Amino acid sequence: MYDQDGVSRRGFLKTVSGGFLAAGSLPLLIPAGAIGREGKTAANDRIHIGCIGVGPQGTHDMRQILKHDVARVIALSDVKSNVLEEKRRLVNEFYGDEDCVGYHDFRELVAREDIDGCLVATTDHWHVLASLAAVRAGKDVYMEKPMGLTLEQDQAMRQAVHEHQRIFQFGTQQRSDPEFRQACELVRNGKIGELKTINVWSPGSSSGGPTERAPVPPWLDYEMWLGPAPYTPYTTDRCENAWWWFISDYALGFIAGWGIHPIDIALWGAEDKFAGPWEVEGKGWFPSEGVCDTAMNWDVKIRLGSGVVIDFRGDPYPDEWKQRYEDDSSHGTAFEGSEGWISVRRGKINAHPKSILETKLGPNDTPLYYSEHHAGNFLDCIRSRKETVCPVDAAVRGDTLCHISDIAIRLQRKLVFDPETETFVGDEDANRKLSRPMRAPWHL
User: Which domains, from first to last, does the chain contain?
Assistant: First the structure.
């Protein structure tokens, strides 16, 4: 780490960032017990949080932390200077002081000894690298979904979390919603009979996007924003959510960016059915023009070793499902069993027969992990050192389903995936897509 004079800060930054040093000097650290409010948690007992990436999603997540007096946000990082300053002011206005520090380079934030946990909500292609730096610096991590751009990145994250014994919360917050928990408990405890099929749907990805080259805005460090991604000249609004989400250099599109939510619920409700091998095949529809190049829509079937079939669609999904589940929402998970079905999405749970939803768990049934607030669960686990409601192993498993779906529609053939070895069986072309190079000097 570093001593009181900060003498070894650069050496520490080299360790956590894989050899690429941060620019700038480290601001004066805020003493852990310097701030307190009458009737609230003592300042020196609060969990200190640093937020890496404070765009729209990062700000939403940060506000969830601000709701909890047991924690205090003391540092932010973002490569957009205007966003960073705006959100730094937001935090300082909330606390009524000027103690939250902003950093252009996240590696300076994770180097602080007084930070306990990091909330990582960068662009998708930075999720793993920023989280790895935090974990290797001894911080607990709340990582926004999805995980990495590749399974190799996910595996590196999992290894680091276990090796450094860190608390990890994945941003699949539906696990902290009572209706999703109820649905998954009923399925796992056999209340719809033998599980046959899981229908999963999410919003599709955008197409188009401006291709005109443009000057890099003065408030954006485009080189740092790109980071490990291939260099591409800046185009209008390239670094805004409306477009980067759907450019494969930075994300997988909504097959992972949104699809991970209902896929995660499929996994939570039927975890014991996910034995291998997994057969995956499907088709996808891709943009023909513009900067976007991720699948706009998809139709993927994953047959698990248990015989259960996951039918994974991008919106628009079949009208038959809308009629059957009495729901035309753009996202959801539906479990089909031999004695009925349960569908669930944000704000609604449904079943046939309806009486299934009135079923109470018996003494021989197994309840699922109880969490009523996703960020709150993360903070509780920082204190207790217990596993979160969505720990790293579950995060990798759910992310893997998104990765193999994307690979299958790109290769346009049936693939067989072994979840034990985390490789495709007898298909080197598919296995090569489980990793991708990073632009120097960035690496796992």
Answer: 9-166 (3.40.50.720), 177-365+392-432 (3.30.360.10)
